UniProtKB/TrEMBL annotation:
GO terms for biological process: peptide catabolic process. Pfam families: Peptidase_M1. Residues 745-792 are annotated as: Disordered. InterPro entries: Peptidase_M1_aminopeptidases (IPR050344), Peptidase_M1_dom (IPR014782), Peptidase_M4/M1_CTD_sf (IPR027268). GO terms for molecular function: metalloaminopeptidase activity; peptide binding; zinc ion binding. This is Peptidase M1 membrane alanine aminopeptidase domain-containing protein. Residues 368-568 form the Peptidase M1 membrane alanine aminopeptidase domain. It comes from Chryseobacterium limigenitum. Residues 745-763 have a biased composition (Polar residues). GO terms for cellular component: cytoplasm; extracellular space; membrane.
Length: 792
């Protein structure tokens, strides 16, 4: 590298030279920069090497027509569904699989993935009851009443815990569709006691229930090009893999209930009062939330339990699931929000009991509107007509509707923490409309593909809601405590949901943090945002896998990120880069470098000492000839000498001058006398490579920043050095000053110029003549005498 210090001093008074320390080269490579290669699945006609769907991509589809009857007295749900299943795969199917997720609430039908247990210090009667052997049936789970074809003929089926296989009387061939019917019922669990996503919550003070109806109907499993049937058991943790389709759902509920659900209600004029319908029509064009069902109306409804019934009809197109809620306790408000990217006019709405009124009335619907608008900016335009938030003391997501928490004290007051928690969960759950409800990843296998990507986009959305929002997931420094844990308490992000110990950090925080580091520190916002939108656009309403995400991010950005996926997603190493040593050098201004002369004596041409098998065979091969006249360029000294065409006088010598340099004159000495060089040695103690980001603070109080990409570690993953030349004195060096790499130990990131941690040396400083001979011979060509000779 040629180095012109005059130019560097005139440019911000700083010069930078990067160096690699090649200590222990034999043990250098830990494969952190090798390509993922066979770790990723082989591209094919369904999924390309670019990360895009291939020309042969396909996915199956299921349309549902469902009727449901909610028996509030018995807390029972009775349903009947007709499913039209489309086999768009290239395969013939002899059976199909459905999910019976509600069986997870049963003591005898659940998947029963057990955990290790130890003797507690104390126990209670409920725990003892649960531990009874043999296990008694608690009466929960799906009761299948009838499974038939479209004509009512029984179909043979087998239930395996939370999965049901239907054996088809006739093979379902490529391009064909199957229509079949299922009737079922189940006892609705008290989700506040039994846990789970769906069920009822009882409000003892007014004797009312709030129902969240989720995973409530037998649902088709995904049959895909990469997995076949995704029929892994539902254990309560790994969420869902579902197919897209159209839904028509009718819910028969008590007449004083208010119902919210996936999609649009088609008969508000039949189920709402004239006043409520008028308010809804007004809300459709409002820029601020309008109460459709008022607080006073909700309080009044709580006191009278009607025995009359009403049927609410909903429709939803191109969704992967359907969920709904029902209660007489609901206050309901709404407003219109327009998505600029596609001019989609969406009804943003919220349903909440009086216990959450002071928070939800003020923030919920506005947070819904803000979320779908912001996610639309970073991914794809929100395509659905509705987005809803329901306060139900928990957090869970479904297409166009989600369930959140956020209740006030009895007097209506709330803490700042409760408010921020409520806003955060609304943003998170509404955001799930994009991941995985539209960009439809397999949650049963890869939790991070929905939770991690959604948590990252949630962080971007929280920042746009309030720049001071206390986000707990996304900023690099917030993952440090998790990354510090012993290795036996960590799993790679690329782990199945059921196998993860630290589920929150692993599935939510670490992938979200990794994406934020990519955006802010490694790729930059412009490249990252373009690639992220490309992924969302490519895989909207499709079934992406991890490789599709990794490949798309690289394909759309031009960045080789295999080192990052390998370290952050497939590994458990933390980031811990340390400043190991700083060497300070000052110029020796009196050094006078001499122009060097080198003498060469011509010897015979350099040749391989051993004729290998190829040379012997080529020499004997009469088909190999050399045409001197045809290729004049090969008539060089070597060729002529080797064939006796030119003799060499071994007594003749040749002298070549190299690198003529001149000493500094007095004027230059004054200019350069304040130059100081600093060699900073870094050690990678954690194992995970990252960019090297430095903040220099000088004695005059000024600061300077420098960043080297992670590629600085490519030739040595353990140690690297960087040398800087400054014309003013350095006071301190701070590594990763903004804590943007998730470095787990910042105590070794600081160096102060107090003499305790630095060594000193001198370096020669001279002026290089720019018009001297080019090294190696004139015009950049190799001198044949030099090439054929040896240095004397």
């Amino acid at each position: 590298m040629k180095f012109n210090i005059l130019f560097i001093l005139s440019f911000c008074s700083v010069g930078i030279v990067a160096q690699n320390i090649q200590n222990n080269p034999g043990s250098n490579h830990g494969n952190r920069f090798e390509q993922l290669g066979t770790i990723l699945p082989t591209p094919n006609i369904y999924r390309t090497a670019s990360g895009a769907p291939g020309h042969g991509y396909w996915q199956n589809r299921a349309d549902y027509n469902i009727t449901a009857y909610l028996d509030e007295d018995k807390r029972n749900l009775k349903g009947s569904e007709t499913i039209t299943y489309y086999n768009n795969s290239p395969d013939d199917l002899d059976y199909i699989w459905l999910q019976l997720d509600e069986n997870q609430q049963s003591t005898v039908k659940k998947a029963d993935f057990q955990f290790s247990s130890t003797l507690p210090q104390s126990t209670n009667d409920q725990q003892l009851k649960v531990s009874e052997l043999p296990v008694k049936d608690n009466g929960y789970g799906v009761n299948l009443e009838k499974v038939t074809d479209a004509s009512g003929n029984p179909l043979k089926y087998t239930v395996n815990q939370t999965m049901m296989r239907i054996d088809l009387p006739k093979t379902l061939k490529k391009g064909e569709q199957l229509i079949f019917k299922v009737d079922w019922n189940y006892n609705i669990p008290n989700r506040m006691k039994m846990g789970g996503r769906g069920g009822y919550e009882n409000f003892a003070e007014d004797g009312n229930d709030l129902y969240t109806m989720t995973q409530w109907y037998p649902r088709m499993c995904v049959y895909s090009d990469f997995h076949g049937w995704q029929n892994h058991q539902f254990t309560g943790r790994g969420e869902f893999a579902l197919v897209f389709g159209n839904f028509k759902v009718s819910m028969n509920v008590p007449s004083d209930h208010i119902v919210g659900g996936t999609g649009e209600c088609k008969n508000y004029d039949q189920v709402l009062t004239s006043d409520q319908l008028g308010r809804y029509r007004k809300a459709e064009s409002a820029n601020e939330p309008i109460e459709i069902v008022t607080l006073d109306e909700a309080k009044k409804a709580e006191k009278n339990h009607s025995k009359q019934r009403k049927i609410w009809n909903f429709e939803a197109n191109d969704v992967r699931d359907f969920a709904w809620t029902s209660s007489r306790k609901f206050v309901w408000d709404g407003m219109r929000v327009t998505i600029p990217e596609n001019n989609n006019k969406v009804m943003a709405m919220s349903f909440y009991p009086k216990e959450a009124y002071a928070l939800y009335r003020k923030y919920s619907t506005k947070a819904v509107a803000h979320t779908i608008k912001t996610y639309s900016e970073f991914t794809i335009p929100y395509p659905y007509p509705v987005a809803q938030s329901v306060e139900a003391a928990n957090g869970m997501e479904y297409p166009m509707i989600c369930f959140n928490f956020g209740r006030t004290e009895k007097d209506g007051t709330y803490s700042e923490g409760t408010k921020n928690g409520m806003i955060g969960v609304v943003i998170h759950e509404v955001g799930h409309n994009f991941f995985p409800m539209i960009i439809n990843s397999d949650e049963r296998q890869w939790s991070w593909m929905d939770e991690g990507l959604n948590t990252f986009t949630e962080y971007l959305t929280e920042e746009k809601w309030d720049n001071k929002f206390p986000s707990k997931r996304g900023p690099a420094w917030t993952i440090v405590d998790y990354m510090k844990l012993p290795k036996d308490q960590l799993e790679p992000i690329m782990s199945n949901s059921e196998n993860i110990i630290q589920f929150g950090p692993n599935a939510y925080s670490k992938p979200a943090t990794g994406l934020n580091i990519l955006r802010e520190t490694i790729m930059g916002r412009e490249l990252f945002d373009k690639a992220y939108k490309t992924y969302a656009k490519r895989w909207a309403f499709k079934h992406p896998e991890p490789a599709d995400f990794f490949r798309t991010m690289e394909d759309a950005s031009g960045e080789d990120l295999d080192w990052f996926w390998r370290g952050w997603f497939y590994g458990t190493d933390p980031v811990d880069i340390a400043i190991d040593k700083v060497t300070i050098a000052t110029p020796d201004l009196d050094a006078v470098p001499m122009a060097k002369e080198e003498t060469y004596t011509v010897d015979k041409p350099l040749q391989n000492e051993f004729e290998d098998i190829s040379k012997i065979r080529n020499k004997d091969d009469k088909n190999i000839t050399f045409d001197v006249e045809k290729d004049k360029s090969l008539q060089d000294f070597y060729y002529r000498y080797d064939r006796g065409q030119e003799k060499v006088d071994n007594s003749k010598t040749y002298t070549l001058k190299k690198d003529e340099n001149a000493a500094l004159d007095s004027k230059d000495k004054d200019k350069f006398k304040n130059i100081t060089a600093y060699q900073i040695d870094f050690v990678n103690k954690g194992g995970l490579v990252m960019p090297v980001i430095l903040e220099f603070t000088f004695e005059d109080g000024t600061k300077l920043y420098d960043k080297s990409s992670a590629q600085i570690w490519r030739q040595n993953e353990k140690k690297v050095s960087k040398t800087f030349y400054f014309d003013k004195k350095l006071k301190s060096i701070q590594l990763d000053p903004m804590r943007e790499t998730a470095d787990i130990d910042t105590s070794n990131n600081v160096w102060s110029n107090d003499g305790s941690s630095a060594t000193s040396s001198k370096f020669q400083l001279f002026k290089q003549k720019q018009d001297g001979p080019v090294r190696g011979g004139s015009n950049g060509k190799v001198n044949p005498m030099q090439a054929a000779g040896k240095k004397s």
